Amino acid sequence: MLMAACSATQSDPDPVQRVISSMSDSFPLIAMPADADPESEDWKGIDLEPKAPVLPLYPAEEAKKFLLPPGYKIEPILTEPQIEQPGAIAFDGNGRMYVLELRTYMLTADSDGTLDPVSRISRWEDKDQDGVYETGTAFVDSLIFPRFVLPYGKDCVLTMESDADNIYKYTDTDGDGRADKKELFTTKYGRSGNVEHQQAFLYWGMDNWLYSTVNAFRVRESPGGVIREKTGYNRAQWGISHDDDGKLWFMGGASGVPSHFQFPIHYGNFEVEDQYAEGFRVPWGAAVKIADLQEGMDRVRHPDGSVNRVTGAAGNDIFRGDRLPEDLKGQLFYGEPVARIVRQINPVVEEGLTTLHNVYQDEKSEFLRSSDPLFRPVDMATAPDGTMYVVDMYHGIIQEGQWAQRGSYLRAKIEQYQLDKVVSLGRIWRITYDGMDRDKTRPNMLNETPAELVKHLEHPNGWWRDKAQQLLVLSRDQSVVPQLEKMARGSQNLLARFHALWSLEGLGALSADIVRELMQDASPRLRIQAMRAGETLYKKGDRSLEKDYQKMILDKHTDVVIQAMMSANLLELPGLESQIKTAMANNKAKGVQTIGDQILNPPVVRGFGVGSGQDLSETEIAMMEKGSEIFNELCTQCHGSDGTGTPMGQGMVMAPPLTGSSRVQSHPDYVIKVLLHGLTGAIEGKTYPGAIMVGMPEQTDEWIASIASFIRLNLTNEASLVTAEEVARVRSATAGQEGPYQYDALLASVPQVLIPQEGWKVTASHSASARIGGTASPKSAFNFEGWTTGEQQKEGMWFQVELPQATTLTEIHFTAPPIRRGWRPGSPPPIHTYPRAYEIQVSMDGKSWKQPVASGQCDEPDNIIAFQPVKARYLRITQTGSVEQEEEKAPWAMKELKLFGLAEPATM
Fold first, then answer.
1. What is the maximum alpha-carbon separation in the chain?
2. How many CB atoms lie within 10 A of CB 455?
3. CA 419, CA 414: separation in Å to the nearest integer?
4. pLDDT digits (tens, 9 = 90+) for 747-801
5. Is pLDDT of 632 > 90?
6. Distance of CA 295 to CAs 3, 312, 413, 590, Å?
7. Comparing C-alpha atoms, which of 814, 811, 817, 880 is closest to residue 842?
8. In this structure, are residues 427 and 392 in contact, taking their beta carbons and an 8 Å threshold?
9. pLDDT tens readout for residues 42-89
10. Domains of the chain, earliest start first
11. What H or E segment, with its residue span, contains residue 484?
């Protein structure tokens, strides 16, 4: 039964008619802006005559507007009112479809309310097997423009919100179809800014790493927590897919074309010429006529009003299903929502390099076109039933409000056709082919044993293989290792061998013997997979594979040689330069020469992704180098050369992983106390063979600071440096500690970030959003959006947090971003928004306030205010200073606010 949160049919039975009713009966005459020059290129030739509005069609009517190659059909499987403004879809192991509903995207031409907390992730099932997803629930609701949805095991998804930094795991523990458990998965993952420019599409790759657009790193869950590695810049915005060989394909967004696809992104960036065939950037959409293009008339094809050059790309899929014609397998499909097309791309590989060809370019056509101006293809996916699904936001505006401002060409077109009225709709379509029925087998993988999952690795539909591998890895069940080893070595199904190999890698059960054996396999594709998987072992310290990698550089197959060069470069194998030169001398293929030359002479690569690291002074660099020496001399024996723990077999490691450790990256007191006094016993319920970490109080404060800083800024960690002064403070405060800490006692003594919960009440004397289109809520202080008073700061202004229960508080951190008044030399100095003076008070009831626990002045954007631990339910920051006259427009602002507190002692 449809739950209340999804029962749109009761309150809005006919959303199409609602949209039509909202439109004006009188056709608007679009006035040219008063300061516009009618002879300028921006306005010359523009039709501003009154027009009838673009009216939404019912799904059955929209279906008639599609143009497909002969034999193909398209049908709706889920539409409004059940869903609104879908942006992406994903399936769990039982074939249930999760829909990312971006319910606040462009509800007005000014993008009002974009960050209102009303978006959701819904889950849908086709229980009667008629091909329509009729049964659904709001799995997670009240979200702020969520960035992605990734099913992650049984009744669980990963997602995050816009302007936020944390990914959360949401789980339905009671089986009612709604997530009732929220857990932090990883942090330091997001950014602020326009919602079209933030990270998106968390995606599980065949190599068991999680990738996203924009971010120049990848993450994965390990027994010790979520770890992270740098990658190249993917220059993508909305869409990730992978092919049968596990290579990721990223979509570029504003470029209108795929952005990264030559080689796996973790090898970095390589510049390849002529990646797109001649004419690739020319789309061939149907005649839409309204010419609603942000770039203006230069992008209009006359006389039909369609787009003459790609201007957007969204969603993609390397089709890997088994219920569409064979010649579609391995082809790339993606949406161009401005051109109203879905494009089919044939990747042609010659001499190790890939060139993309539009399959229908010679016919001046596309795989899927629509003459309905509201068709907005934003995602596509190979489905469990072997067909392809297309996500259609079915929306009036497909360009964020910053590019549709008043006075712009696009704004004129939006108003002329009343496109801003077409909101809150959305359809998901299935593409089928005559004579090929969809697979009606209902997946049941979430209820199968690991041994039963293994057989799905041989399935002809890539979706089944991917999902079975993911669930095997998440199970951490070692009992299937013999089955997987047998399949990897001897299956007649090459693709099953790929997945078995990576399942072993994900389970921590991959052996050097299997890698070495598969490096010599007759299939060059399997030799490549073996090299990629073997990188995990080499990075963990197994140098026995060194000569095997070096031997592969002499392989007769060009693709294998290129892979061997990239692996050798990534692993920094000894003699790398001479090996690359040998490869280039032996193989004159363009790909070998291109990649070899760029390994020897790395190009300067720039992108809009975010990597790790920070600018360090010479003194800090010297401290880090000292820390590296200490780590390699003392720590690697137990923690492993890469910090993931020295392998002990059966998935066990000798000591807790330091790589990507939330504990290591938390408050610096944690690492300092462990280094000074040691740690023993179970950590979060898990014991290790190396059961004790011996303290080193005899070392100097500088020595402790060096190794602590190295660990916190390396091994995929991104945290702050530790100073000798901090070590001295902790040393003094813990002088009475006898012997090593027990984990629970240690954790209770170290300040922890308090993750904002729904029960927190955040208020302020004055409040405005720090971002255009924001929510104007004081809660925004805790994310990247930010909070501001909205007016000049003055004495008496306050900001308050009420917690659900009394908590021991210790400090707060926040950033007060300056307001820039120009970027050129000679521009006025920025306006500083930090409070000129402050005091912090606490209370148990919100009425009786104690004397200030901290007070002082701020003089820089980044602020850390620590105070003696105090138990309270309320914390209030009051502005006690005044603004200098020349800064009379300076508001008080905060973002990335964090409260720190101590864990309450466990009770029996």
1. 84
2. 14
3. 5
4. 889 999 898 888 999 999 999 876 655 666 899 999 888 999 989 999 999 999 9
5. no
6. 43, 11, 12, 37
7. 811
8. yes
9. 566 677 788 899 999 999 999 999 999 999 999 999 999 999 999 999
10. 4-433 (2.120.10.30), 451-600 (1.25.10.10), 618-750 (1.10.760.10), 761-902 (2.60.120.260)
11. helix 481-490
For residue range 127-182, list pLDDT tens digits in order: 999 999 999 999 999 999 999 999 999 999 999 999 999 999 999 999 999 999 99
Q: How many C-beta neighbours within 10 Å does residue 617 have?
A: 9
Work out the angle between the directed axes of helices 590-600 and 576-586 (0-180°, nearest 10): 160
Query: Regarding beta strands 258-260 and 135-143, do their DSSP bridges make them parallel or antiparallel, or are they unpaired?
Result: unpaired
3-state DSSP: the chain helix, strand, coil percent, rounded to 5? 25, 25, 50
Radius of gyration of the chain from its Cα atoms, rounded to whole angstroms? 29
Residue whose structure tokens are 């890539």: 462
* List of residues 6+ apart from 72 with CB closer than 8 A: 431, 432, 433, 434
* Whether the Cβ atoms of residue 568 and residue 576 lie closer than 8 Å to each other: yes
Please tell me the distance from the alpha carbon of residue 439 to that of residue 387, in angstroms, as a whole number: 8
pTM value? Answer: 0.82
Contacts of 303 by beta carbon, 8 Å cutoff, 6+ apart: none
Phi-psi region of 113 (alpha: psi -120 to 50; beta: other; left: phi over 0): left
Q: Which pLDDT score, from 0 to 100, does residue 3 have? A: 34
Distances (CA, A) of 587 to 264, 317, 490, 592: 21, 33, 31, 7
3-state secondary structure 394-463: CCCCCCCHHHCCCCCHHHHHHHHCCHHHCCCCCEEEEEEECCECCCCCCCCHHHCCHHHHHHHHHCCCHH
**CA proximity to 316, closest of 340, 285, 289, 344:** 344
- pLDDT of the residue at 661: 82
Amino acid found at 428: I
Token pair of 170 as six digits: 């949401």
**Of the spans 283-297, 348-362, 612-626, 693-707, which averages the highest pLDDT?**
348-362
Instruction: Say how many C-beta atoms besides its own lie within 10 A of residue 362's C-beta.
Output: 9
Query: What residues pair up with 802 in beta bridges, in sequence order?
Result: 761, 874
